[in-house]
Amino acid sequence: MRPDTPRLEIRDLVRSYGGRRVVDDVSLSIQPGQVTCLLGPSGCGKSTTLRIIAGVEMQDAGEIFVDGNLICDTVFRVPPERRSIGLMFQDFALFPHLTVADNVAFGLSGPKPARRARAMELLERVSLAHYADDYPHALSGGEQQRVALARALAPKPRIMLMDEPFSGLDNRLRDGIRDETLTLLKEVDTAVLLVTHEPQEAMRMADEIALMRDGRIVQQGAPYNIYNAPVDKAAVAFFSDINVIRGTVNGALTETPFGRFLAPGVPDGAEVDIVFRPQHVGIDFDRNGHGPNPTAREGVAARGVVERARFLGNESLVEFRMDFDGSTLKATVPNVFLPARGTPLWLTVRRDRCFVFPARGAV
Ligand SMILES: Nc1ncnc2c1ncn2[C@@H]1O[C@H](COP(=O)(O)OP(=O)(O)OP(=O)(O)O)[C@@H](O)[C@H]1O
Ligand SMILES: [Mg+2]
Question: Measured over all CA atoms, what is the biggest interatomic distance in the chain, rounded to whole angstroms?
Fold first, then answer.
């Protein structure tokens, strides 16, 4: 096996239901110790992809390899229990009639003392050894989750498939458990494919994000790249609120109330969307009907009137009705900034944080 052989590789996976391709030519590879998040809206085919890899569902086309060895195509199929794949799903069910330690030892083979020792080792790791001889119902949701994780890891799976495993937990508990889980998985060098529809979870967990839409992977890369170099408007919108201004291209440039934007490769007369996130909008006060002078970084300011301002904790969200066309733009401002409705203010846009897309595209 070459040193760079992926732990898990799927090639051109296809699955249709009733003539509709819900998994449409999906390819992915994950190295040992790497966490890839399959991120996308509800119904885009994430769980189906996971179920095919787990072997509980068959693909119509495509292959799956583990450490370079074919484990499944449309003819040949290693059964699920021999794939060395650990599973952790949202509705992880512990066996209520087994103790915590027996739950963790459940998937292990060999003599009982060795299985018990391995279960205890894992329970130590998730700080639950003191519950070993209790039954699951005596544990909180978060503790049960950690038991489920210990159970999934006990057989030392080479691959871990996780389907929204943290969605049943409350927010505060979730962050801690996510981080603990990640540490554990990295320690044992497992390749992880984690399904989520929450961008924040994906950003927190992933080495790589595969953004999925309508059965296809539309973009794949490190969280930083997906966030900062999105492929289209929908990819921007998946991670945050967005603002959009429409412009027409002339000489690879488009003129807007915020100044000119480059639109390389777009033909004259075509429309483009200039897309930016509310946190990249700057706000300045009105000085007798004038705004700040244009700058290279932020271009020209445009005037708007506050329509609504809401306090969100770490930041405030302010919505403006823009003078230039009556459209609404949003800005987030750190801390408390709650100007009264009707206050005129001047908006600028971080030009290096704007994305220019041809004005078709999804959303
Ligand atoms: N057994 C099935 N028979 C028919 N259609 C199915 C079946 N399983 C899934 N689908 C359809 O395939 C599509 C993808 O489903 P899937 O469960 O993979 O979505 P998902 O991305 O996991 O969504 P969610 O985030 O809501 O869990 C959905 O439209 C679903 O209705
Ligand atoms: Mg799902």
Answer: 84
Identify the three-state secondary structure at position 103. helix
Q: Which domain holds residue 192?
A: 8-237
Burial (CB < 10 A; 0-12, 13-18, 19+), residue 250, is middle
Structure tokens at 123: 């329970």
Task: Kindly state whether residues 222 and 321 are assigned to the same domain.
Answer: no
Interhelix angle for 141-153 vs 171-187, to 10°?
A: 10
Structure tokens at 25: 């030519």
Quick one: pLDDT at residue 363? 41
Residues 58, 183, single domain; the answer is yes
Query: By alpha-carbon position, which residue is closest to atom 28 of ligand 1?
Result: 43
Asked whether 230 and 247 are in contact (CB, 8 A), the reply is no
- CA trace torsion 287, 291, 294, 298 (10° rounding): 130
Give the three-state DSSP class for 152. helix
- The residue out of 237, 268, 298 marking a domain boundary is 237
Nearest ligand to the CA atom of 197: 1
Distance CA 309, CA 319 (A): 6
**Is the pLDDT reported for residue 361 higher than 80?**
no
Instruction: Kindly indicate the confidence band of residue 296, based on its pLDDT and cuts at 50, 70 and 90.
Output: confident
- Residues with C-beta less than 6 Å from any ligand 1 atom: 17, 22, 40, 42-48, 197
Q: Which of 85, 81, 84, 104 is nearest to 94 (CA)?
A: 104
Q: CA nearest 215: which of 20, 18, 11, 9?
A: 20
Give the distance (Å) from ligand 2 centre to CA of residue 46: 6
**148 lies in the same domain as 259:** no
The answer as to whether 2 is a domain residue is: no
Dihedrals φ, ψ of 49, to 5°?
Answer: -60, -45
Has residue 334 been placed in a domain?
yes
Q: What is the pLDDT of residues 324-333, one digit of tens each?
A: 999 999 999 9
Residue 342 sits in a domain whose CATH number is 2.40.50.140
Instruction: Return the number of other C-beta atoms located less than 10 Å from residue 329's C-beta.
Output: 21
